[in-house]
Design goal:
It contains one helix and five strands; from the N terminus they run E-E-E-H-E-E. By secondary structure, the protein is of the alpha+beta class.
Amino acid sequence: MSSPPGLPEFDLPMIFADKVAGLGYQAGVFRLAFAANTANSEGQEESIKSGFLILSPDCMLELRSQIDQMMNGLQDRGILNFSPGKLDG
């Protein structure tokens, strides 16, 4: 499977998440746990673990910077609205 436009080519599995299940710092690295909502066999929604990111402090700072740039770009285009204590999409 090829990478989406704008991303380098990596032959690695993708992780889908619609929530951050946890964030921690231990042994010099940040650990981000992700989860996704799915429907079980009875049709009830449940959250399942979907993957982890383990990042060095430098990588975490770079990720934060790039996310801030993307969020500001979305706000400039009117896609997101930042207001105190609230983020609307």
